[in-house]
TrEMBL record:
Keyword terms: Signal
Region (Disordered) residue spans: 20-97
Compositionally skewed regions (Low complexity) per UniProt: 70-97
Residues spanning the signal sequence: 1-18
Protein name: Lipoprotein
Compositional bias of kind Basic and acidic residues: 22-38, 45-68
């Protein structure tokens, strides 16, 4: 009878200890979850940074294109046709009174 009581006590103790979580396991799982979240956060930040850089590059290309177009078009205040040069060889007509 003492053996059966001892076996029952040992079984109960073993099950009781097995049911308890080890703090080191919890810390390891928490650390893994934190590492995963940090990696996801870094990936999101990198993605946003790439998108911002792409938008900045597109804006720079657009500004360069506008500057190039402005340089190619003549100013609006310039005369459309050059003035005719004076002909110094032709004599002036005399004034009639």
């Amino acid at each position: 009878m003492q053996k059966s009581v001892a076996y029952a006590f040992m079984l109960a103790a073993t099950l009781g200890l097995a049911a308890c979580d080890k703090p080191s396991e919890n810390k390891a799982q928490d650390a893994q979850e934190a590492r995963t979240e940090a990696q996801e956060s870094m990936n999101d930040a990198a993605k946003e940074s790439n998108e911002a850089a792409q938008k900045e590059a597109e804006a720079a290309q657009e500004a360069a294109k506008e500057q190039q177009e402005e340089a190619q078009t003549p100013p609006a205040t310039a005369p459309a046709e050059p003035a005719a040069p004076a002909d110094p060889a032709a004599p002036a007509a005399p004034k009639q009174q």
